[in-house]
Amino acid sequence: MNPFNITHPTAVQASLFASAVFARFDPSGRYLGVGRSNGAAAVWDLETRSRIRSLEGHVKAVTCLDNIVLALLGSGEAYVEDLRRNSRSRVELCEVDEAPEAVDEEPLSRSRSPMTTARFDPSGKNIFIGTSSGYVLVFNTRTKKMIARHKISGAVGSIKSLAFAKSGRRLATNSSDRIIRQFNLPTYESSQDVDFIEDELEPTHRFNDPINRTGWHGMSYSPDGEWLAGGATDTASHKIYIWDISNDGQFATALDGGREPLVDIHWHPSKSSIVSTTREGNVLIWHSPNPERWGAFAGGFEEVDENVEYEEREDEFDIEDEEEIMKRKMKAEDEEVDIDTLVEETSQHKHLPDGMDAEDEDSMWATCDRDDAGEFKMKIFMQDDVDV
Question: pTM to 2 decimals?
């Protein structure tokens, strides 16, 4: 991947009729995994645009594709379920209750908020969970203990989804107030002095649609983290908004995918490509088309903006007999080349009087720009010094 040639997608490259609820690129970016509402999953080859494997067994809609699954129940509980054959397990992730002791009162306890979304960070070391009260909980993947609890600055409502940049240092949250917020995450280190970190996160950028005030179904970062894509919840169109993070989060463009409403998006792990899923189950693959430069293949090729009528020479495309061409080549080879005669270049040598330098300016003028047609001559008179 050329870091100097990364941009955002601009057009639909292909459409897959996959009956999908969501779609995800695999880490290599060659295959596409889709989950269906009938409980089946399928793997598609992006090069051949064909389905290469179908997986069945679930009785309800597939909502995740991974070896280690974050199971989020409708009751607001989250579980980490390891599906690997040698280490099958299921552990519930529980938020730590606060129990400060008040004077002359019974200990207070903080009620747990239902968990609304859960994601692994890119490193896989931590699990981030959003709650209905606007908190972000951080759990250690190995110990399954809560190591941080962050309150999102402002009244954000329920957190609907989370997204990470590839570096893992930036987090984007999608809240019920129809605003996407980006945060810079701190470093989480295990410490015995403090059970968990509790602080407030201040967003570095806020992204929204100020005109239509639309919400967001999902969001995804580009591989280099310089672009952020958000899928709008518009019920009459398929809209993807893209913001330029490197340019202070300025709005870049809005992609229009037709009238089928969008339900999910995902950015390619290494290319300028986005996959979006429609409500009807179709999967759209977006790309950034590169204009072909034919001049790089032919040195004499000239690119023009408009069609130009070509004037053909009389003998340009005449078909000549190969025997005539061979006779002409043989005749040219039989011609004798004189390599013994030495050709001398004749040049006029100008003799200057004694005591004068050839580089003298007046001498050069007299030699190169004289008026008389004959040979230039100069008379020199010698006179002896007379002693007084």
Answer: 0.69
**Can you point out the beta strands (E) in 186-279?**
197-201, 205-207, 216-221, 227-232, 239-244, 250-256, 262-267, 273-278
Reduced to 3 states (helix: H, G, I; strand: E, B; else coil), residue 329 is helix
Helix (H, G, I), strand (E, B) or coil at 381: coil
Nearest to 80 by CA among 126, 44, 38, 111: 126
| Spatial separation of the C-alpha atoms in residues 318 and 321, rounded to whole Å | 10
**Number of alpha carbons in the 13 Å side-chain half-sphere of residue 254:** 11
How crowded is residue 71: how many other Cβ atoms within 10 Å of its Cβ? 15
Six token digits for residue 237: 């169109």
Cα angle: 132, vertex 133, 135; to 5 degrees: 100
Token digits of residue 51: 């389905």
The dihedrals phi and psi of 330, each to the nearest 5 degrees, come to: -65, -40
Tokens encoding 178: 């129809």
Q: How far is residue 243's CA from residue 232's CA, in Å, rounded to a whole number?
A: 13
pLDDT-derived band of residue 325, with 50, 70 and 90 as boundaries? confident
The token pair that represents 19 in the structure block: 């009956």
Contact call for residues 115 and 71 (beta carbons, < 8 A): no
Pair 286, 254: CB distance under 8 Å:
no
Can you tell me the distance from the alpha carbon of 97 to that of 110, in angstroms, rounded to the nearest whole number?
6
Q: Tell me which range, 73-87, 100-114, 216-230, 372-386, is most confidently predicted by mean pLDDT.
A: 216-230
SS3 5: coil
Q: Are 219 and 201 in contact (CB under 8 A)?
A: no
pLDDT tens string 135-157:
999 999 888 889 999 998 876 78
Whether the CB-CB separation of 182 and 139 falls below 8 Å is answered with: no
Cα atoms found within 13 Å of the Cα of residue 225, Cβ hemisphere only:
14
Distance CA(247)–CA(48), nearest Å, equals 37
